[in-house]
Specification:
This protein is α+β, with helices and mostly antiparallel strands. It is about 35% helix and about 25% strand. The chain is built from ten helices and eleven strands.
């Protein structure tokens, strides 16, 4: 028997303009689970967290991720996964990705690390495929496994680039107590966009990557704007435009939807501003009688890891 306990961090996908191709790692919030590998064949998932998860393991994102890894491994084992701590599903900070990432990372360690981190991303993407209705993407599982800011240059084959994180890259994330499923958030998106809109988005993506490479947080803030997805998804977040005005007036450099929502995040150049912005966002939802969780942290360079 081999048992491994791991932590996989929460993430912010898209980072504004980088829909499905960029994501960043949050510090201090995420999933904790343990994996036990024994002789035999099968998969058991036990939920000991305070978050409700599907009773049917076929509907749990851990299942396709673990099965993809074990198929590549080529030998049968009995795998038991115990979920100890869980990000709330539908939070917009990579709940499903953290589960998939934690499971494949722990299982890889338990098996003696036969697979690279990039291969683990591909296995974890199978969980994202389940939750999003058939679209595999790595903008959450990539940063959850690798840490830092991740760029997905391409998917066929998977081509992952880790980008440098500025020292003063501070993030405020608020998860309001409303539910927006990934599938619902994808269904509202247009199938085609005008060329002029695409050109604006390309410029923003290029500016975001350049800002990270140059460690220019102000350029990152100017570029972190989404003209393709946000106009359609902001309808799910009460008072979105008004909240943007509040946080930008308070000194934030950028304000966007985190992943599919309903979480929103703001970028700031120091922790004092980030803390102030986080409180403004909490108050915004409280005024509408919506409870929320607030996370204020730097973007982390550390991804999934074994817990002692």
């Amino acid at each position: 028997m081999n048992s491994v306990r791991v932590f996989a961090p929460a993430t912010v996908a898209n980072m504004g303009c980088g829909f499905d191709i960029m994501g960043m790692t949050l510090d201090g919030v995420g999933d904790v689970l343990s994996v036990v590998v024994e002789d035999g064949d099968g998969l058991e998932i036990v939920n000991r967290s305070n978050v409700e998860l599907p009773d049917d393991k076929e509907k749990n994102v851990i299942t396709p991720a673990v099965r993809a890894l074990m198929e590549a491994y080529g030998q049968k084992r009995m795998v038991r996964v115990v979920v100890e701590k869980k990000i709330s599903p539908g939070s917009g900070i990579g709940s499903s990705a953290a589960s998939s990432a934690a499971a494949v990372y722990a299982l890889n360690v338990a098996l003696g690390r036969p697979f690279s981190d990039e291969q683990l991303v591909e296995f974890a993407m199978e969980g994202e495929k389940l939750i999003s209705g058939g679209t595999p993407h790595a903008d959450n599982v990539g940063p959850s496994l690798l840490g830092g800011v991740v760029l997905l240059r391409g998917y066929e084959p998977l081509d992952i680039v880790r980008l440098p994180v500025p020292d003063n890259f501070c993030c405020s994330v608020v998860h309001p107590a409303i539910m927006v499923s990934t599938r619902m958030a994808r269904e509202v998106l247009p199938k085609d966009i005008p060329l002029r809109t695409a050109v604006k988005q390309w410029g923003n993506v290029a500016g975001l990557v350049a800002g990270l490479a140059l460690k220019d947080v102000n350029l990152v803030g100017r570029a972190m704007r989404d003209v393709v997805v946000e106009p359609y998804r902001k309808q799910f977040i009460p008072g979105f435009d008004a909240l943007r005005e509040k946080v930008m007036a308070a000194g934030a450099l950028a304000f966007n939807i985190s992943g599919a929502g309903p979480s929103v995040f703001a970028l700031s150049a120091d922790m004092d501003v980030a803390a102030r912005v986080g409180e403004i966002m909490r108050q915004h939802f409280a005024e509408q009688e919506i409870a929320s969780d607030v996370y204020v942290c730097k973007v982390s360079n550390r991804g999934a890891r074994v817990m002692e």
